[in-house]
Amino acid sequence: MRKKNPHRLQEIAAAALACFSESGYTRTQMADVARAAHVSAGTLYLYADGKESLLHLAVMEALGVNTGALPVPFKSEGMPAILLLVETEVKSAARWPRLQEALETGEKPAPTLLQDIGLELYDLLVSARYIIRLLDKLKLDIPEIDRAFATLIRGRYLAETVRLLSASPQAPRPEICRLKARMGMEIIAWAAMHRRRESAIHQFGELSEEEIRKAAATSFSAALLPEPPETPATAKG
After folding, report:
1. Is 139 helix (H, G, I), strand (E, B) or coil?
2. Residues in contact with 59: Cβ distance below 8 Å, sequence separation at least 6, in sequence order
3. Which domains are delineated in the chain?
4. pLDDT tens-digit profile of 27-63?
C-alpha cells in the first residue's frame, strides 16, 4: 500500500464534491476533479482508481465522513455501496420531531405549529445542504439516486406535510395540499440553501442568519395555512 498524504485525499474528496455538485455525474470528468484539486491526472489516480470512486469520496465528504484514514488508491465497491451509505446517513439525519408530534397527536395546522415545523426544516436543510445539493444534481444522471432522493428526503417530507394539512377542517383537495406543501418547502430550501450560492450582490448582508431563518419559517407558515372559508359577502362578490 502506498503511503499517502491524508490532507491530499481530503482535498480530492472536496474537489470531487464541488465538481459533481456543479456539473452532475455524466458531465464531470476525472480531469475536472484533478484541476479542481490542483493535482495532475497521474497523481489523482494514486488516490482514487476511477470516476465512481471519486463519486463515493464526494458523497462521504458531503456527509462529513472523515476520508483521512482511507487506503489509497481508494476503490469504491460500486453504486450499491454508495446508495447504502446515502440511505443509512440520510435516514438517521432526516428527523422533524415537531411535525411527527403533530401527526401523532392529531394537532391541526395553525400558524405557530407551521412556523415551528418551518424552523426545524430550515435547520435540517442547513445541516444537510451539501449532501442535498449533491443528490439534487446526481439525480438527473443516476436513476437510483433519483429514487433515493424522492423517497428519503423530498417525497417523505412532502407526504407527511400533506397528511398534516389534510387534517384541517378547511383542507382543500389533496392535490392543492401537495402543491402548497411543495411551495412551502421551496421557500425554506431557498432560504436555507440556495441563497448561499448566489453572488454577493444578491445577498442580505444587513440581515442576520436568525432573521432570515425566522422570516423563512413565517413565509412557510403563510404558504401552508388553509384558506379561510368564504363568507356570504365574499362569495357573492
Report:
1. coil
2. 82, 85, 86, 131, 134
3. 6-76 (1.10.10.60), 87-227 (1.10.357)
4. 999 999 999 999 999 999 999 999 999 999 999 999 9
The C-alpha atoms of residue 90 and residue 51 are separated, in whole angstroms, by: 23
Nine-digit cell at 194? 440556495
Q: How far is CA 17 from CA 130, 140, 143, 180, in A?
A: 8, 16, 19, 32
Report the first-to-last Cα separation within the chain, whole angstroms: 79
Statement: residue 71 has pLDDT above 60: yes
176: three-class secondary structure by DSSP: helix
The pTM is what? Answer: 0.85
Q: What is the mean pLDDT of residues 158-163?
A: 94
CB 34 within 8 A of CB 40: yes
Neighbours of 144 (CB within 10 A): 14
User: Residue 199, SS3?
Assistant: coil
Cα 124–25–28 angle (5° rounding)?
115
> Cα 29 to chain center, whole Å?
24
Torsion sign over Cα 228, 233, 236, 237: negative
